[in-house]
Design brief:
Length: 302
Amino acid sequence: MDEARRRLLPPTGALHSFTAAARHGSFSRAADELGLTQSAVSRQIALLEDWLQLELFERAGRGVMLTAEGRDYADAVAPALDRIRRATARAIERHPDRELAVATLPSFGMRWLAPRLPRLTAQVPDIVISFSARSTEFDFADEPFDAAIHFGAPDWPGAHHDYLFREESVAVLSPEFAERNGVRTAADLLRVPLLALASRRNAWATWFADAGIPDVAPVPGATFEQFLMLAQAAVAGAGVALIPRFLIEPELEEGRLISPFPATASAGGAYYLVFPEGRAQSPAFHAFRAWMLRECAEAERI
């Protein structure tokens, strides 16, 4: 590293003291957090101010307050230090040859992944996978995940996409609701509450078009953030729900829900396994990826 670039990297200790003092608004509380004396924190910050040729704090009563320049610097530096901490923790704690961290959509994790995991562990007994529920995209550089399950288009920034499968949603209702409301045909659904996923409010229009009833105004019902909440509402008799079939197979098999209509609705997207290119070299990820693709291919052949 040349001298000019080295000059742009202040001492790490000074940065830690600065961000702690910025967070607490106090040198003494920063010292307590870092296990230093107050005078040591003060010296570290003085060193940083000299390094930057900027005044970072001003006195405010018994505490300190960031200057405008100090606030701008703290806003930029604190997230960078957090990323370094997370990256270091991953490097120390992880065993990439057998450990894996996967972010999954909650419903997909509960109803597709979890029931199939015994097959994975039977094939790869040494693999250790940590699953976490995530419903939105994130930057792999900022999170401790090796891969994620994504639904929609292959548009996750900076990630490779492995196509898994498409979904078809079916209209489901409890047998008691069907009997109580005289629901026998698709047209009968025009007079009962229709439950929907909050992010797919227009899915019912697609379903009715497939059922041969276009341009309708169905009775609005409750909306839910997750499919499994939607399924429970349908089981309880709150209305008719539109849910991907693979997510409600247990309720259909047990008879708690029925799906008497042939019409389906496609959300227009698909499920993908997404991951940054560098993860493909991990033995644990290679085994998990191969298993996922094999499971999805076999399911589509059924």
